[in-house]
Amino acid sequence: MILLMLAGCSVPHVEPTATPTEEPVPTETPIPEPTPTIPPSAARVNGLYIAIEDVDGKKTQLREAYEQLGEDIPDDSALREEALNDLIEETLFLSAAQLRGIAPDDHELDTQTQALCVKLGSCDALKNWQSQNHYSAESFRRALEREGAAAAMRQVIFDELKNAEQIHVYRIWSYRRADLNQVLERLNMGISFVDMARNYDEVTGGDMSWFPRGVLFSQDLEDKIFNLEAGGHTDILEIDGAYNIFYVAEKQTGHAMDTQVEQLAQRKALSDWLEEQKKSADIEMF
């Protein structure tokens, strides 16, 4: 009975059905981009590393510069701080230039290096120069990159300065307030400020030339002068024991500056730019 029951419950034999298989589609294994080797670093500025090698080289250059100038050489810690600060500023220029897409690329750096080889007579001569000035081939290339980026960013900053508002100012001054009271009386009578200024100063005619903000005056005095319309003048202002009246002859954007004024304006613009960059930069010391 057990055998009969087992026979009745057995599952009928079924031939397996072949399942069609698809050929696997070959896939390409992505080749990872090589990760640049980060040199032992002293700091990182906006994601850009400052190599310890560069700090040490800059420190030695500074020490030799102090020696050549006959000045007292700061201690090692102060030299390192000065070197690192210089490199941080240079790296801020590089970071900004990269964001604008105007930093030198590998091709430009190769071209500059080759041009230096030609200028010095051979690439061996360039290597000797690098060694004498405390550069390795790698640190020199990094310095070349920073220098090129800084030059590009300085040009951007100077071009923006050319579009700044400028004023053409004349001045009459005297150590006696009574003289300036007399000037005000004549101005009220309609006499030309420029004509009077020429009488007071036969050398310059009282002409202070054209200049933008941030060059010649304190913030308070600058605001008083720049807030004047063309043809307007200040009240009598006492400055360092002398009495002054300033007159704005013209206002214009993009006027050419005298060489000395332009140099002062450029220096001030660079200083202001660096201060703003330092405030907003991501700077990490190691």
Write the layout of secondary structure elements.
Elements: H1 2-9, E1 41-45, E2 48-51, H2 52-69, H3 76-100, H4 106-120, H5 123-132, H6 137-162, E3 165-174, H7 177-188, H8 193-200, E4 207-211, H9 219-226, E5 237-239, E6 242-253, H10 259-280, E7 283-285
Characteristics of this structure?
286 residues; alpha+beta; Triger factor/SurA peptide-binding fold; Chitinase A, domain 3; four-stranded antiparallel sheet; three-stranded antiparallel sheet; 7 strands
Helix and strand string, N-terminal first?
A: HEEHHHHHEHHEHEEHE
Number of beta strands? 7
Unreliable stretches covering 5 or more consecutive residues: 1-19
CATH topology of the largest domain: Triger factor/SurA peptide-binding fold
Indicate the proportion of strand residues: 5-15%
Helix content: 40-55%
DSSP helix count? 10
**For the CA atoms, what is the radius of gyration?**
36 Å
CATH architectural grouping of the largest domain = Orthogonal Bundle
Task: Summarize the main sheet.
Answer: 4 strands, antiparallel
CATH superfamily of the largest domain: Porin chaperone SurA, peptide-binding domain
| Count of spatially separate domains | 2
Shape: elongated
CATH class category label of the largest domain: Mainly Alpha
Question: For the residues shown, what is the average pLDDT?
Answer: 89
Q: Could you give the distance between the termini?
A: 89 Å
Broad structural category: alpha+beta
Which sequence of strands runs across the widest sheet?
Answer: 4-3-6-5
